[in-house]
Amino acid sequence: MALSDTGCKLIDNVVPKVEEFSYELNAQKDTSFVIRSKGPKTQASFTIQGEISEQAKLIWDSMPLDTIKYSSPLPVATREIVINAGTVDTTNTQENYSGLLYVKYMPSNGSTSGILKVKVKM
């Protein structure tokens, strides 16, 4: 009996807990946010929903925990998700990152309109 209880506790400790962060974005404005990873390597999945008048993009990348200073500009991300004009309902595949997840939304121009909801599941 004690062995099976210990086994269950070990399994509970190994199974990662899923966290989800939601951000509502005004499609006209550049917007950035940073999420701290839960461990050395974490998988992130992006879901983008809403409506947008013109194409935009979401760029993202990871940064080591010890390099970020919120008072200084954040680096340019190297991974990109293109958001096409119209109704948006897309999920990209999970990808690994570590440290801090830096995400920046960038409209194609100042006349882009709409509201987007970005969910990041880890």
Automatic annotation (TrEMBL):
It comes from the Bacteria. This is Uncharacterized protein.
